[in-house]
Amino acid sequence: MKYSRIIGTGSYLPPRVWTNDDLRAIMDTSDEWIQQRTGIKERRWVDQDSTTSTSDLALQAARAALTSASLSRDDLDMIIVATLSPDHEFPGAACFLQAKLDVPGIAALDVRQQCTGFIYSLSIADQFIKTGMYKNILVVGAEVHSKGLDKTTAGRDVAVLFGDGAGAVVMTGSDDASKKAPRIISTHLHADGRFAKELWIKAPGSGDAAAWLTHEKLDAGEQFPKMNGKAVFVNAVKRMPEVISEALAANGLTVADVDLFVFHQANLRINEMVAKQLGAPDDKVFSTIERFGNTTAATIPIGLDEAVKAGKLKPGMLVASAAFGSGFTWGSALIRW
Ligand code: ACO
Questions:
Q1: Buried (b) or exposed (e) across 105-140, using 16+ Cβ within 10 A?
Q2: Of 8, 137, 227, 270, which is most buried with the most CB atoms under 10 A?
Q3: Which of residues 152, 174, 196 is at a domain's end?
């Protein structure tokens, strides 16, 4: 059987920084409130008047990952894009990215698992490579949240959390079966749809008696994300340690074996509680939330790329990654780097 491994990482953050004080100018909030509850100091948002879309950010991250992998776009067999903010309702952002990368014909798949989207995508790529169906797969997490948020005081509980950005990895097949060889060791995926409406966007929607999208729905703000923050918090701090423990137990490993934790970046307080429950020391937990906010499907690939660039993620290290988000969905991946 083949193994899959990550051979390149890349990321792209739009240049325009929005500090908490910048947000204070457009809604009733404060730097103190945001930092105290989330740890976020600033986030990047695309130019609000631009035509920049999710696949544009994905393209920049993908190019960087291909360069870092020393692969050409023509080597790719498949593109997977995890996003909850696709360019359009359909087709998927992976199709738009494939056209922009100019690699017609190869498989292109969108994964709509929100904050857990990258872990799900990594797992899907891992299965395709392990079976020998594909050799090289580009996996991207990308979001343009800023254009879809209610940036008034009414939407402040959600709007202050989210940033735009993209991260990408290039995965390839390996025959090296030795225990310390770089590879995806295992992935663990879960969902509980009973919580689907705790963090969601209602409209447009096919389940309403009225039309898919109406002026009334827009006037009611149904196109904006709505969140039960407390339910998200309580479940995230339970599920993330649980799914990391599941991954470690499945491989006969312990928290002490892990060199670096790269968690989804929803909220600094969530990740501090997760680390505390696991007994993971602070210096092994990589964080980007202060600078980039929550970029949903992009936080983990951005984190991996930033950790590589910062010299904190080196060949041979054991990486544990976990995410929790809308759905509810959660999952983990153990990676020998
Ligand atoms: N600025 C200022 N005040 C605010 C803001 C804001 N941006 N947002 C809400 N408030 C106000 C509320 O209106 C409320 O005011 P009131 O007491 O007068 O009614 C007050 O602050 C407290 O609101 P709560 O919702 O009780 O605040 P809480 O302490 O629970 O914190 C938070 C809210 C930060 C969202 C918290 O529930 C949390 O961390 N939840 C996790 C959610 C999360 O991280 N989601 C990320 C996306 S999902 C994911 O990626 C996993």
A1: ebebbbbbbbbbbbbbbbbbbbebbeeeebbbbbbb
A2: 137
A3: 174
